[in-house]
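Hey, quick one: can you model this chain's 3D structure?
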Amino acid sequence: MRLGLNFGYWGSGPSDNIAIAREAERLGYHSLWTAEAYGSDAVTPLVWLAAHTERINVGTAIMQMPARTPAMTAMTAATIDLLTGGRFMLGIGASGPQVVEGWHGVVYGKLLTRTREYVEIVQTILKREQPLEHHGEYYDIPVKGGTGLGKPLKLIVHPLRPNIPIYVAAIGPKNVALAAEIADGWLPVFFSPKRVNVFRKSLDEGFARRTDGKTLADFDISPTVSVVVGDDVDACRMHVKPILALYIGGMGARGKNFYNDLACRYGYEEAAKTIQDYYLAGKKNEAIAAVPDELVDEIALCGPRERIKDQLAVWKEAGVTTLICGAGNIEAIRTMGELVAT
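Sure thing. Here's the predicted structure for all 342 residues.
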């Protein structure tokens, strides 16, 4: 099991993040990852980090598909991969209806159909075997009904790698199956290694549909995991609970919240309902207090060094190949580097 480091959104300042990135590289981390919602984008900070490191891989977790045409994403991927000497990994995802429709002004639509078309177009562009032509439900290239001057084009630059790894963020059953079918890796959030059975059927279905012969052994399972090191386990958990309360309670409307659904699939139906009720009523502190300790311990690594060391085995046994740490300080990053190295 190798380590990644997730910077999330750009918040703590370029100098701090650069120092952290360089320390992760020194410690032998495999990759650095950035994210986006409706603040900082994922690409600009990633290139900034890549420019201040030498060997470590860089990935997006995630670039929002509705924010960019697939052709733009392919251009970006090819450019970063060239600039970094082949260090780029393309993580994409759909985001949620509130952001897609409320921020980007794009109809959310059919998640599976959009993702399948998107990945197919990106792969076609990067392979550069023929001019791009795609006529699907979401993407019509060259578009019909325009000036009539559009024609199939081929990427001008030659990608350093025509097979830049593509990762798909997914937690829903059908989307997880799609990731296993068409992607090189999977980016689950709030992944519980104790609940692999929740995802096993979807993964099996996806690999059964693959046409390139790749199996689970070729697939990078890369969850982002909060890591909080400290002597007081409860205090460490309190760094994670507000995040869980936000996502389970407020990242989506009632009846359309993927994270709430995931908590229910893990067996926390009552807690998920309570958290959402409080959060949507504006009672955020009560929502945070309603997050079970057991749920935090399933999806995060909290507490003293030895406690975290004891917990790592279950992540390896679950088949996690890249554990992407959501660690906000040097101490946690060094602790994980030392524990996984040993």
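One thing worth noting: DSSP finds 14 helices and 13 strands in the chain.
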